[in-house]
Amino acid sequence: MDVHASLRGVTRIYPARAGRPPLHALGPLDLDLRRGEFLSVVGPSGCGKSTLLDVVAGLALPSAGTVTFEGQPVLGRVPEGIGVVFQEDASFPWLTVEDNVAFGLRRAGTDPAEVRRRVDYALGFMGLADFARAYPAQLSGGMRQRVCIARTLVLRPRLILLDEPFGALDQQTRLLMGDELLRLWRETGATVMLITHALDEANLLSDRIGVMSARPGVWIETVQTGWPRDRDSTLAARPNFGAVSARLWASIRGESIKALGQAREGAGR
Amino acid sequence: MADGASALAAAERQDRLEAWGGVALTVLSLAALWQGLHYLAGDSAIASLPATLRETWHLLSGPRYWPHFRETMSAFLWALLIAVTGGVGIGVALGGHRLSGEVAEPVLVALYSIPKVTLYPVVLLFFGIGLNAKIAFGALHGVIPVAIFAMNAVRNVNPTWLRTAATMNLGPLQTARHILVPATIPEIFSGLRIGLSLTLLGVMIGELFASQRGIGHLLMTSIEVHDVRRIMAVVLIVSVLAVTLNALMLAIDRRLHRRV
Amino acid sequence: MTKAAWIRLALLAAAIGGLEGACRAGWLPRTAIIPPTEMAAGGWRAVASGELNEDMAQTFSVVAIAIMVSLAGGFLVGFAIHGRPRLRRALDPFLGAYYAIPHFAFYPLLIVLFGLGPGPLIALAVMFGVVAMIVATMNGLDRVPRVLGKTAQVMRLTGTDELWRVRLPAALPHLFAGVKLAIAYSFIGVIAGEFILSTKGIGHAIAFAYDNFDARSMYGLILFVLLLVASVNLTLHTVEQRLIQRRSR
Q1: In chain A, which residues have their Cβ closer than 8 Å to the Cβ of B11?
Q2: Residue C65: how many CB atoms within 10 A of its CB?
Q3: Potential cystine with A194: which of A40, A94, A247, B89 (Cβ 3.0-4.6 Å)?
Q4: Could you give the CA distance from residue C14 to residue A191 in angstroms, rounded to a whole number?
Q5: B chain contacts of residue A20, beta-carbon cutoff 8 Å
């Protein structure tokens, strides 16, 4: 097995702050991300899914345990080769679509001709070519999220982390964006880790699904979907699709009830 | 969950302790800055802290200067009353009526930003020298921020709450009492906090000219005879008053906003 | 122009016309107020005569310097405090009460520190303007979505790059509130300072006219100052609205 990134005994405890006691958000948990796989993480709200992503990306340090990416420890900085797409709209409203997409390349000092080439490719790939000179405010939520994906894509990340990237979109747009994500995954050969609360979405997109408990989040089980690499949203029509979703719900339902009763203490941390 | 509750109480205690520590540290730094400036600039520019404290005590301990403070306080309270009732009235009216608000907002913002001290001669010509001019000048400073905040508070009331009130068949008075007032109070209070500081400043600027009494007058005569110690003592008294009032209002402000 | 703007213009014209009429009819005491046309004439005469050229040059150069120092200093200090929540919490009650402190009382100190001439006036205006910018910068940075900061981290930007390329542009529309206030306060600080303490400048000219019962010059100059500040503000307001519109979603 070719391990791309791995977590060992990762725990995250938020220290006491501004009138709140410390909060045990996550772990301890282990994870081996295989090179080129599509892994989804599902769990009840507030279980520490986003915290997990922050730790893998190097956006947050674990309170205990270690994270490695391509054999190197991740120590509180985002390593080269990791791209992240967030749930919130992270497009820069003061830049046009093409300047948004080119942003990371220009900051990294890439040769202008190469920037042009890669940006044009990414705009075409994400269906944004006609909107190159528009500002994000002129686009719909789905198109803005495409801008963010294109901005990540041009940097050619080997590991793409997505934190509920379609959470703010309507169901039909979500399905279409999921298809595009699968296409991107196939063409780039990158490893993908997707955080989501939508069980069907995880089922549809993933090779493997990790199911997390209510806070503090630990693994309950890992489900192999067994879908072919060449797949899209029509997969939902398969007879055993429902069985996988049902199995996910069976293992997560009790945890969701537990999470419902937990205070929103993790919010805003 | 006894453990959780006691942990929360402990965290809150710790938090309060930190807040007071921060304030104490700020006061100490300001005192150090003051003394540093004293050593740098000398007695003729800024009196030392102990000398200023002695002078402050001298001003406050005997009844000789009390009329000045009483005069300023009564002018301040009257001005505040006018600024608050006028500001809230104007703000609520403008916030409730969309077009009026659109018409008036740029005017309010422009009035807020003009150097009002230049209007002082006009105020004097209308109200004459004395208490009324100070009150008018203080109210002039305070009324606009209160009006702007009140207007925005009314505008920003969540329309869903009003629709909820309608589904419960609440009358206009009940809607005002149970929806509008609790929804707008925190924001209006923020306006009051800013209006209060500006009203105090307005009253004191009013007292600088052509006034025979009040803290501002005391300050102006001290500046004229270059009594640095007294200047600093008056500034200290005013600053402590302003910071205390503001800290009090800020604490209430935070409590009000926590619920929303 | 929108409907509201037309109504505003009409009301303004009616107010000026009404004042003109009331003054001409003798309903308002001539010792207190003069008709707006005479104010405008008085202001035009005072400005066009050239007698005030030196005063105006002094006032405007002092205001310009004070504005630049307030904006740059306020942004940097606000940014520094914003990154230190504890410091910010400790400073909050002081920042809120700041504008109630009679700053001109520090004028003697400022003269010793900065010498005679425009130095103390600049310092006075900066004391007045900078805090508005500090507070607005912190509030503006509060409103920068956290996800943009995270994005900058993912792009592995350095501290200064993050500030200039992400945080500053993201906060810019919100900073405008502070820019407007800092400019207005710099004007207020300089003119109030001149009014009370100086022997030069437009503020002094107004006080001088008042002392000499020269109502035409006084009202004329007041009108001039108010129009100037209001038009600067209006220009900034227009730019701000355009910025916000481009970004509103």
Answers
A1: 16, 19-21
A2: 18
A3: A40
A4: 70
A5: 8, 11
Listed in sequence order, the residues at least 6 apart from A214 whose beta carbon sits closer than 8 Å to its beta carbon are A43, A44, A46, A47, A255, A256, A258, A259, A262
What is the C-alpha to C-alpha distance for residues C243 and A93, in angstroms, rounded to an integer? 10
Starting at the edge strand found earlier in the chain, the sheet holding A191-196 runs A82-85, A159-163, A191-196, A38-42, A208-212, A219-224
CA atoms within 13 A on the CB side of A177: 24
A-B Cβ pairs (cutoff 8 Å, strict): 15
**String of b and e for A251-267 (b: at least 16 CB within 10 Å)?**
bbeebeeebeeeeeebe
**Which A-chain residues 169-188 have CB contacts (< 8 A) with chain C?**
none
pLDDT beyond 60 at C99: yes
Domain containing A152: what range? Answer: 92-156
pLDDT tens across A177-193, in order? 889 889 889 988 999 99
* Strand ranges across the sheet with A3-14: A23-34, A3-14, A64-69, A72-73
How confident is the model over A18-48, as pLDDT tens digits?
A: 666 778 888 788 999 999 999 999 988 878 8
ipTM over 0.85: no
Cα–Cα distance, A70 to A15 (Å, whole number):
30
Mean pLDDT of all residues in B119-133 = 81
Query: Considering Cα of C80, then C84, then C85, then C89, what sign does the dihedral take?
Result: negative
What is the crossing angle of helices B228-258 and B49-61, to 10°? 80
Nearest to B113 among C100, C109, C184 (CB): C184
Query: What's C190's domain CATH number?
Result: 1.10.3720.10
How many other C-beta atoms can be found within 10 angstroms of the C-beta atom of residue A228?
7
Mean pLDDT of B185-191: 86
Cis omega before residue A216 (within 30°)?
yes
The pLDDT value given to residue B86: 95
The full set of domain ranges for chain B reads 1-44, 47-258
**pLDDT surpasses 50 at A267:** no
Count structural domains, chain C. 1
Measured between CA atoms, the residue of chain C closest to residue A138 is C249
Does residue C44 lie in a domain region? no
Q: Are B207 and B72 in contact (CB under 8 A)?
A: yes
Give backbone dihedrals phi and psi of C84, rounded to 5 degrees, phi first. -125, 85
Tens digit of each residue's pLDDT (9 = 90 or more) over C102-141: 777 777 777 777 877 788 889 988 988 898 899 889 888 8
C246 contacts A135? CB cut-off 8 A: yes
Architecture of the structural domain at B47-258: Orthogonal Bundle (1.10)
Six-digit token pair at C125? 């205006």
What gap in Å lies between CA C153 and CA C162, rounded to an integer?
A: 8
Nearest to B125 among C31, C93, C107 (CB): C31
In a domain, C5, yes or no: no
In 3-state terms, what secondary structure has residue A76?
A: coil
